[in-house]
Amino acid sequence: MPVFNSVTCPICGCLCDDIEVTVENNEVVKIKNGCAVCEAKFIGYKGEHRIHTPLMRKDGKLVPVSMDEAVHAAAEVLANANYPILYGWSSTSSEAQRVGVELTEEVGGIMDNTAVVCHGPSILGVQEVGIPTATLGQIRHRADLVIYWGCDPWSAHPRHLERYTSFTEGRFEKSEWTSYMQKLKAGAGKKKLDSALRSGLAKGPVPKPQACYVGGVPPSLSKGGRKLIVVDVRKTMTAEMADFFLQVEPNKDYEVMQAIRALVKDQELDVDSVGGVPVEYLEAVADALVNCEFGVIFFGMGLTQSAGKFRNIEVAIQLVRDLNARTKFMIMPMRGHFNVTGADVVQAWQSGYPYGVDFSRGYPTYNPGETTCTDVLLRDELDASLVIAADPGANFPKRAVQNMVKHPLIVIDPHMNATAMLGDIVFPVAFVGIEVDGTAYRMDHVPIPLHKVVEPPEGVLSDEEILKKILEEVRIIKAQKAEQEKKEAA
Amino acid sequence: MTELIIKNGFVFDPLNGINGEKMDICVKDGKIVKTVNEHRAKKIDATGLTIMPGGVDIHTHIAGGEVNTGRMVRPEDHVKDAVAKTAITRSGTGYSIPSTFVTGYRYSRMGYTTVMNPSMAPLEAKHTHEELNDIPLLDKATFPLIGDWWFVLEYLQKGDFEGCARHVAWMLDTTKGYAIKIVNPGGLESWGFGRNVHSIDDQIPNFCITPRDIMVGLAKVNKMLNLPHTIHLHTNNLGLPGNYQTTLDTMQALEAVPNDGKPNMHITHLQFSSFGGDGWGNMKSAAPEISKYINNHSHITADMGQVIFTDTTTMTADGPFEYTLYSLSGHKWVNSDVETETSGGIIPFHYKKNNAVNTIQWSIALELALMIEDPYKILMTTDHPNGGPFASYPKIIAWLISNKARMATLKRCNKKGQKKSLLPTLNRELSLYELAIVTRAGQAKALGLKNKGHLGVGADADVAIYNVNPETTDIANKYKTVRKAFRDAAYTIKDGKIVVKDGKVVMNVDGKTMWLDVETQQKCEVDQDMRQKFKQYWTIEYDNYPVYDHYVKVPEVIPIKASV
Amino acid sequence: MHVTLLSGRTIEQGVGKEYGKASHEYYNACSMCYMDADDMKKLGVKNNTNIKVTTPIGSVILKAVKYPRSATPGLIYIPYGPWANAICSDATTSIGMPSFKGTPAEVEAAPDQKVLSIEELLMSEFGR
């Protein structure tokens, strides 16, 4: 029973590469070190929702076809399309993404990745003001103040705290795991009592639900060791682990951050609260920011998807820039898909632009709002799509998907996901990071190799191979077309 | 089995002492040979044309995490410089940070054939190599940043030079690197907590070691490992008025590592380290002091770091320096520290003629080039893109060969800067022979590249042919002709194939990535040591750290036998 | 009842998507909606019964679940997926990002209405 060490988990931006995988008869049977989602993927990837042959929609139903027929049909669609979109890319390798750029350039389409509905606004904010950041190891070694703003790693990046922040051992800072465990134990007794009082099993006054800002600023902000602050609109599981939780009214993060900036710059606020947060709590946070040795803000969709969008990111980065005049401070987006960073990186090095890249003029252009595929879909400007390593059928707004299915839809995915269920030409592929090698880029831009631990099902190719087949066929079709046109002109 | 003969051109091949002789150059199977079968060989009629070895660039930031973040944050830089796809070339964008394909095409069109990417964070080495694979038409190599690497700091602090050497050898192998790169030694680790060092004898927080210790120690290590290039150094206090004293201290410190009269250090973008005065108000050139020292010592090579008046992007591993630029300009600023290894920063910068300091900076690099007598000691670069885009090289060529060109630019500059410039007192004009040294022969020699930068038998057949007739052209007077000629090469030949004709790319070839395979004794002991330390120092596993062979598309492995 | 709609990740949605979009794990994880306990009481919605959520984009039936960790008056939270996207605002505000967090919505009890499976949902919205 071979055991593979240092396997890289291909799910989220944490890109944990210490997974131990046990394989038996070409099947993964055991996982060590992975979180619940990692385990679900390594054990569940080969389930009933796997596609095994290429499919094409005939008379309204998807039926199996040969690889040649599917490749030719897909290539015809793309070669003849005027303005196709090639979207997704975030759950495949950088090797496949490079073929993607070549293919999009060849067919004169738009290449866009999941950043458009995730951290695209962060990229826009960074393009305005830059970003003071570092690799995750710097956080582990040095950070004594960690802030999660508008994100919930416990749900979306489960091992983030234990690998990179509060619960990890660094050269200059120790793990807070023991004191967190002690806090949990101390709190467990009180929880049991409160529950008994509420249900009447114990005698005494029924405890009222604790409103957030009662009882003054918690002393935990002035303790030694690493401190954890969570800012969100509701108390998440990550917030429960924090030394201090700041509950902000929805769509008010921008105001709250500007208020903290003012306080960091030693100004006084003439109001009593901002965004639902009493000013004395903001002052405590500002003091913690300024007095730390090394602080970091991790942020997520709470900022990119709420009102203000990229302006929220811009102001968060500006706060961190201001803090660098007083102490050492970093900021980092919590990238979602395991290789969305890679998609941005590859698109940038080959075209100059990270996402929403339009090749229809023969050279790359970039104008979010115009060339981003969500907008192109909502305005129904496309005439074909290719979706790979993403699921806009499930994760794009309804009207965008309605317009997508009006035109030929090519899907490349291992699973029968929502987009595949809606597709016209569907290619099965192997799982990158389980059945295929490759490279992925972590949320802090560190490239990490992905490993193959089992063979893919018979006849199932990799993303890179399918894309190369389609590209080759597109070139043949275009050459034939050019020949034809020459003959007709003569 | 391709044979080529370049007939009748004026050849400038300084490493073989050839100064404008009319002679034929013969190529077979990608190498320079003595003769070819003239009936079979493809002919290029180079009558009236200048022939030089293909250009070599010792320091240009073109690939990797930092360069690419620069691309990502500056869409406004690219939108003014879009490059369309053709039947043989890919599309892309420029201007100060071109995309990878465009980088290859643009260098090749100027007759360049070999480039060095001088800053690679070891943790991100795979990214650097992935990008290098996508730069066509050029041979390349890259230098890992290890001046502030925890292993180097710890071993040097212990005084264990041999242990340090073995770990550095491991690092070069593991990252497929070519040379030891040091940036603001001690400053980058200090920047981990937002601090910096201010002299070469400052103590580095948490490590009990000084910048002097790092530079001298790594120069010793470099010698022990028999590396082809010397340590490649970006000095402390870069970019600050009065820093020439630190540069002098640094050069003096390295006298402690004798190397048989040969260089033991290369100071890169020397212009930024040659500031006199003590504030921005009285900042002036210290080129005389620096040049005097270099003229009287044999252990230093340097490159210019020429400033070009344009909107460009600065990017270096010198995190604290980039922060200083941010404090001065308020512009968008990227900081990118890398665990255990290095730091980094990016900020756009516009060098303006009407700015006194920028004018003096522009002047300093040229003063160095003219005052340092031996052209093998002062090579032409802009520290692309920090001083300006590499596509500006023809401008620098014009300034180097022509006083008239220099004065034409100087008279349009800031008046205060003009008064402080020493250029009006310097009449020296480089000849084509000397130009060949500062743009190819000297670069290859400093790098220890045996088959580059010359056209002797056995050299790689990398040849550049320019539309300049040295017999009939007064190059100092007709500098515009020369500038144009070096912008669009008549021919660029790579590995014996014609890849550029009349400034246009006509064939696509993959270049090679050169890297050192350093063989020491006790290699496996180092591996054990690294395995144990990995979990403590880095956030990725030991097995996932190396640049495996498949990451390099076309490798050229250079075996090195270390003396340790 | 007038509320603000947020959508985002949950650990169950993360696990469910790995099993497959047509899996029952994904269905259970994504066809539900976290609501404030007091709001549910006011609306007369029992825990784990169905509600109808309507926005200018459309309406969808979801299972209402009490949010366990804090009071979130006026907020509902639907995990990422096609049920959330049936009603989330698609206003990209000229930058490509739909307004996944902060859509105004109306909630009413719908204990007798059925939550659609992913196949039924896709068919009703996209005809496939």
Describe what this molecule looks like in 3D.
The complex is a heterotrimer of chains A (490), B (564) and C (128). By secondary structure, chain A is an alpha/beta fold. Chain A contains 19 helices and 22 strands. In chain A, the strands form five sheets. Chain A has a nine-stranded mixed beta sheet. A five-stranded parallel beta sheet of chain A has the order 11-10-9-14-15. In chain A, helix 2 (67-80) packs across helix 19 (463-489) and helix 10 (253-264) packs across helix 11. Chain A is globular and about 90 Å long. Chain B is of the alpha/beta class. Chain B folds into two domains: 3-53 and 455-505, Urease, subunit C, domain 1 (Roll), CATH 2.30.40.10; 55-447, TIM Barrel (Alpha-Beta Barrel). Chain B has 18 helices and 26 strands. In chain B, strand 18 (333-337) and strand 19 (345-350) form a beta hairpin. With 128 residues, chain C is α/β, with parallel strands linked by helices. Chain C has five helices and six strands. Chains A and B meet through helix 3, helix 4, strand 8, helix 5 and helix 14 of A and helix 1, helix 2, strand 7, strand 8 and helix 4 of B.
Task: Spell out the key features of this protein.
heterotrimer; B: 564 residues; alpha/beta; Urease, subunit C, domain 1; TIM Barrel; 2 domains; 9-stranded mixed beta sheet; 5-stranded parallel beta sheet; 26 strands; 33% helix; C: 128 residues; Barwin-like endoglucanases; 6-stranded mixed beta barrel; 5 helices; 6 strands; 32% strand
Task: Please outline what is shown here.
The complex is a heterotrimer of chains A (490), B (564) and C (128). Chain A is α/β, with parallel strands linked by helices and 490 residues long.
